[in-house]
Every structure is written in C-alpha cells, then in structure tokens.
Amino acid sequence: MMSWNAAVQLGNTSIMLPVTASITAWLLLARQWRLALWWCVLFGTGLGIVIATKMLYIGAMAVGQASDYKGASGHAMLTSAVTPVAIALLLHSCRSRVRQAGLAVSALLCCCMTACLVALKFHTLQEALHGLALGATVSIGFLWRMRRHTMPAIHTWQISAVFLVVVMVGYAKPAQLERLMNDFAPHMFRYTRLLPPATLY
C-alpha cells in the first residue's frame, strides 16, 4: 500500500509542474520557439480542462447539487502529458530502438499511475481514464509536432539552467492551486446560477 501511495505522489503538481517548466525552459534554450509555444498551448489546454471539471464539481457540491463525477484526474493527466515528452526529449539523440523503449516505459508508467489512482480509490475508473486520455492527447500532439523538428544536443549549461528552473518553480508551492479552486469555485457556481439560462451556452 505504501509503495502505491508513493507512486501516486509522482503525479503531484509539486513534481510535474516543475518538470513541465523544465521542458519549456529546455525548448527555449534550444531556440525551438514554435515547439515551446505548441507545448505551452497543449499543456495549458489540458490543465485548463482538468481545472474546469474540478471547479464544476466543487461549485456544485457547495450548493448541494454535486454528482458522482468529481472531474478528470489531474494526477493521471499530468503524468501522461509530461512523462512521455520528458523522456522523448532526454532520449531524442539516441537510437530509434532506445527512443521507442523509452516511450514504452513512459506509457507503462502512465497506466500504472491510472491503476493506482483507481485501486486506492482516489478516483473512479471513469475519472482516471478521462485524465489519462486527456494527458495522452497532449503528449501525442506534441510528439507528433516534434517529429518535424531537428533537436539540438543537450549541453551541460542547458541542463544546469533547466535544473535552476525546477528549483525555483518547486518553491512556488503549486499545491496552492487546489486551495484556490476550493475558494473560487463555489462563488463562481452561485453566480452562474443567477444568470439567465441563455447566457450559460
């Protein structure tokens, strides 16, 4: 049980958001401007969908109209969006078989994360699969675009700069995101209930 809990912790925002920032920083350092923009748009859209589904649940729960669906799993989405991309970038200069093996390992990790979330009852199967599918869409979309670009080799100074970004973002306490959703969602939901039905579409 402890090992499963430890596995789930790998999908926390305190780990995955710094890795996401590292990916962005590395792309910028490599002067891959379009790839960096593509990554930010894809990841931001995926994270935004997760936040929206969770806020709808929190807001509905605050006014006594909550459903059994708590929103797409953020852990599953973050893991399946970030892990394959990080591994692909680290192994981009390796042989094709090594890159394929790395992507296979990342896919296995994503599936294990989804299974752990369901087994430990953090999410229903539906919520976990929705997060997994959303994250996979983000990573596959980025990797598909990445095939058209020639990635430069990673240099020591680039790795050092990326590591600095990881440390700085880690101190930003990304776990505050959940608290902000808990504070804001009920007010937003109460406000939308006061609007005419036509304005909600």
UniProtKB/TrEMBL annotation:
Sorted UniProt keywords: Membrane, Transmembrane, Transmembrane helix
Transmembrane regions listed in the UniProt entry: 6-29, 36-60, 72-91, 103-122, 128-146, 153-172
Protein name: Phosphatase PAP2 family protein
Coiled-coil ranges from the UniProt annotation: none
Top-level taxonomic group: Bacteria
